[in-house]
Every structure is written in C-alpha cells, then in structure tokens.
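Team,

Forwarding the record for the chain on the shared tracking sheet. I've put the sequence and predicted structure together so nobody has to dig through attachments.
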Amino acid sequence: MFGDKMHKSKYFLLLSTLIVSSCSLFKARVPLPQYQVIDQVVHPGKVKKVQVKVPQIGKDHKLICAKSEVNTLLEKDQLTGYFSVNYKYLRDETNSRLIPCYLQSNIQGDLVNFHVFNMRVEEWDYPKSFINVAKKHVDLSKENLDRYLKEKAELKEVYENLVKGEKLFTESFRAPLKSKITGVYGSRRVFNNKKDSWHSGTDFRARRPTPIPSSNRGRVVHAKHLFFNGKAVFIDHGMGVLTMYCHLSRIDVKVGDIVEKAQVIGLSGNTGRSSAPHLHWGVRVQNNWIDGLQFLKEQGEYPLEANYKSTSSK
C-alpha cells in the first residue's frame, strides 16, 4: 500500500512537471509582431494622429511616448490616438528632439514593450503680431490679478478631469466657422508694446451676433465669464481632447450639458481681452494647446492652407 502511494506521488509529480513545462513552452512559442521603427516628424504646437496595430493576443494595450501614456482607443486591431508637442518644448534644451514611442501589451501576464516608432521634433517658426487692448488687460490690478489666478486654478481642475479612456464623439471635428481667419495659432503677440505672449488658438472673424456652433459632440465642462477669455465655453470630447470658444457675447449652454456637433453654444462678441468682435477657438490635446486647423487637417477635414508652412522656409 505504501508502495502504491509512492507510485501515485511520482506519477502526479511527473504530470505536474509536464504541465508546467508545456505552459512554459506555450508562452515561449507565442508569435510576437515585428515593427519597423521609423521617425515621424512633429513640430511644437502641432499634433500627429497615430495608429498602431496590436498583437493578435494580449490585452491592456497602451502607447507610451517619453514615459507618458498617449490617450488612445482600441478600434478593431489597432490603437488610435493623437500625439501632441508643447508649444515651448524646444525652448528647454534638456528636452530630447527624438521621442521614442512603445506599444505596451499584457501578453499572458507579462508586460511586453514593442518599439513602434520615434517622434522627431523639428523647429517651427511662428509669426509675430502687435495688438492694442484695454490697459487693464495688460497692467493688472491686484483685484484683477487675484481673479485671474482663481480662474487659472479652476481651469487647471477642469483639464485634470477630462475624459481620457473613451470618446464622446462619433464623427470627425469641424471648424466652428468658415469666415476669414484673423489670427493664426502660435503667433507671438505683443500687447500695447509691453506684454509678450503667444496665441494659443485660431481667431475667426465673427460680427456680433454670429451663432457659434460646437466643433463636435461633447460635454460642457466650463461656461462662464473669464477675465482674459471673456464669456467662454469649454467642451470635453473625450480622449483628452477639449475645445474652447472665447469672447462670446452670450452663452447658451451650461456645465454638464451634452452638445451635439454643430449645435449653437452661444453668440460671438468682444468680451475679455479682445480688440474687436471675433471668435477665439482653441483645441487642447494631450494636455497641450495645439494648432486647431492642423488638428483638422490630420483628419483630412479642413482644406484651408493657413499657417501650415514654417516661416523659416519662406
């Protein structure tokens, strides 16, 4: 009887060994994809649509660039998202001009990193403009400075709580207006020959009271009168994408509203730091204010050639 127990123990030990060995062999034989690593060119203040095919097996796929996760969605067998570069990225000489990007996948319990491409950041020269506005919007009083700092803190909280893991839209984005562009993204702006700043959006001519439509479906996350932006509406579209509509004369939506693409959210105006009636339209992607027209062009949705050639190439 004791011999039978010994025989059974040896049998189960051998069987367990074979099972473990088989699992190890199975994991070792998993076919992994091969990626041809290429450099993709991107500029400060610009955005690049990225698509990466994922392995046939595995889960929890992520795209990591410069140790930061890019907001993506898994569509069929590929991750799709938008990679952006901060407008002032190259002003910091410690920032690398070559940003490696990796696909991270959970394959049978192991985190596997695939080097899929590099983002090569190249210079882009933006134009300079001089603008005259009310003195109070350049030389801030203590009261106005306190107001601005409070609004800045409110917006910081809005940006930190944007929807990132899903998209709230089903169609491509559109420009809010088709009128003349009076101010391009990225231009250095000197107010009253004193205050040196930069333009974080695109200005469209919009006589009062022009109806202002949303660029896409999303949720209103901020809607109020701000010191610099005037009456403004901020819409969260998911995937870390946000659009902003400034200097309105009237706001027709409230925080929490779901707005559809092309739905009117207010009327154009001249509120805030503005020299004439117009719409300032901003687009924020991956925590950076980027060139909205170029964002539309990445989707193949905007034919207008405005501010797409670096001034250094002229």
